[in-house]
Amino acid sequence: MKNYIKQIKINLWEGIFRQDVNFTEGLNLISGTNGTGKSQLLNLIATYRGKADTVIFNDNVGKKDVIVFSPKRNAQKVLVENLQTQFGYDKGKQAKAINQLLNQQIQDQNFQSIKSIAEYLVESAELLVNKSTHLKVDAARVVQTEYDTILQKVFNYGILFKWDSENSKYKSRIVKNNKQLNLNDLSEGENAIISLVFAIYFSRDFTDVYLIDEPEVHLNWTLEEKLFNFLDSFCVDYEKQIITVTHSRIIALDQFRSKTKFLSWNNKESILVNENFTPEMISDIAGDTIKIIQGITTKQKLVYVEDESHKVILEEIIKILDLDTNIQIISGGCEFVKSFSKAFKNIPVENVYFLIDGDNKPLTSSEKSEYKNLIQLEKYCVENYLLHPEILKLYEDVDWDSKIKELINSIEAKTKPAIKPVQVALEKGAKVMELIDFIDGSEIFIKLTEEKKHDKKKKYDFMRELMQKIPKEDLLRKYFPEFNFLSNL
Question: Which domains does the chain have, with CATH numbers?
Answer without folding.
Answer: 1-65+208-288 (3.40.50), 76-204 (no CATH), 291-489 (no CATH)
